[in-house]
């Protein structure tokens, strides 16, 4: 039993180190395996108007991150013009970016504004962000130049 616990502890440490290594200096919110947007299809927000989980068999890699898609058509659209579908601030929370931080963006808390996909951390944060979307976008855009290359942990200090 002790060997199994040691193994699990080592796995947890490896995942933590991989996550921090991936996040350090990277402008993209992806898992330790490089999965972006928690596996949700970035194109579906624009085509079906809802958060849609992607299929693990239909993927594309862009800027070292793996994106999943609900259909081959969505994958083709993404590959033709990835920048049109990527979430703002690398998929980090838009409200968090406005405050100068990087928090995970929840694919279920989203909004398209002027053709740009924005994710937020939670229902509560989404509601707060919606109180002044244009103002928060201006703040987040200004902050992003300073925080894009920093890890979330660096911004907490």
From TrEMBL:
Signal peptide (from-to): 1-23
Keyword Signal in record: yes
Lineage of origin: Bacteria, Pseudomonadati, Pseudomonadota, Alphaproteobacteria, Rhodobacterales
Organism: Ruegeria marisflavi
Keywords linked to the UniProt accession: Signal
Protein name in the entry: YHS domain-containing protein
């Amino acid at each position: 039993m002790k060997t199994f616990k040691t193994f699990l502890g080592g796995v947890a440490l490896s995942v933590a180190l991989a996550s921090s290594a991936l996040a350090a200096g990277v402008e993209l919110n992806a898992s330790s395996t490089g999965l972006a947007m928690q596996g949700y299809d970035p194109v579906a927000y624009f085509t079906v108007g809802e958060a849609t989980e992607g299929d693990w068999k239909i993927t594309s890699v862009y800027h070292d991150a793996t994106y999943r898609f609900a259909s081959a058509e969505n994958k083709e659209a993404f590959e033709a013009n990835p920048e049109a579908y990527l979430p703002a601030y690398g998929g980090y929370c838009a409200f968090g970016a406005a405050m100068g931080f990087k928090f995970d963006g929840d694919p279920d808390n989203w909004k398209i504004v002027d053709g740009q996909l924005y994710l937020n951390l939670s229902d509560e944060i989404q509601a707060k962000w919606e109180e002044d979307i244009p103002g928060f976008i201006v703040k987040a855009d200004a902050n992003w130049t300073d925080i894009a290359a920093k890890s979330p942990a660096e911004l907490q200090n």
